[in-house]
Amino acid sequence: MNLLGIFSQIEKADPEIGEKMDYSRRKMLKTTSVAAAATPMFFAAMVNKAFAAEGCAGDAIAIVKYALTLEYLERDFYRAGQFKAGLLPAGTRPYVVQIAKHEAQHVDLLEGVLGIKPNAMQPKYNMATLNAALADYPTFLTYAQALEDTGVRAYKGQAACLLEEDTATSRTVLAVALRIHSVEARHAAAVRYMRDLRVWPSGGQNGTEPDPKVYMDEDQGTQGGANLVDFFNMQENKMKLYSPDMSTRSVYESFDEALTAEQVLAIAGPFFAAPM
Predict the structure, then answer these.
(1) Which residues are 61's β-sheet partners?
(2) pTM of this prediction?
(3) What is the top-level taxon of the source organism (predicted)?
(4) Is 214 a member of any domain?
(5) How far apart are CA 235 and CA 218, in angstroms?
């Protein structure tokens, strides 16, 4: 089996896959004999792992940098809102100030994981987009909701990547990410409360602004292979407490769906001065 020839052909078709496959090869060789590594089965498994990495921001350190970029954006967005004169009503200002503090602490934690100085990776922003998001209070909250819900789904999207890597570093990063993820969900609920909406992503209340991709594929009735909407609507189901519309909404609200790194960067990209 001419593996080198096959690698060459694959790299011609997709230059990026060479890097992905090299990472998968190095990882699998840690637990695979040299003889086994020469077999077609090994090659197929390596290709599968390389393509499974689609949606990941990279290895554990790359994922931390990806998360840090998003946390910088959230921190600076809330700070900009906090210090824009006349933007925030007195009644909700404490919420925004507290969320800004949380986001700053998330930045500090992720910078600590990377061992870098404060703001060492501070991105430059597209000020036109940022200023548009601060145009008025309703617009500010619309963008805040989008950023928070994107953040929740972004962290979930990388959890599987960290589990797949399964190194001491990835396990440490996963623990850090989970500590942040739950707080981002609370932020999202707080922003929805400020908007007089249901406090979890809910069909019909998510909206399409500023970007419909924030809620792409969010409303899923099937979880773990089970169609929960059908279950709750079964005539035989003695727990049938809601109308079909209410039970469907309840199922949708009960679960968050992941976003890939590519999807997240497509949503957040307009905030940055240079392509992410």
Answers:
(1) none
(2) 0.77
(3) Bacteria
(4) no
(5) 26
Residues 174 and 94 in one domain: yes
227 and 156: one domain? Answer: no
55: number of Cβ within 10 Å: 16
What are the tens digits of pLDDT across the range 54-90? 689 999 999 999 999 999 999 999 999 999 999 999 9
Q: 3-class SS at 116?
A: coil
pLDDT tens for 153-167 read 999 999 999 999 999
DSSP SS3 for 213: helix
Q: Residue 15's domain spans which residues?
A: 3-52
For the chain, what is the domain count? 3
In terms of domains, do 27 and 150 share one?
no
Helix (H, G, I), strand (E, B) or coil at 164: helix
Q: Where are the alpha helices (DSSP H) in the chain?
A: 3-13, 15-29, 34-37, 40-52, 60-83, 93-114, 127-133, 137-165, 168-194, 228-233, 244-253, 261-268
| Residue 167, token pair as written in the block | 């190194």
Estimate to the nearest angstrom the gap between the alpha carbon of 231 and the chain centroid. Answer: 29
| 212 inside domain | no
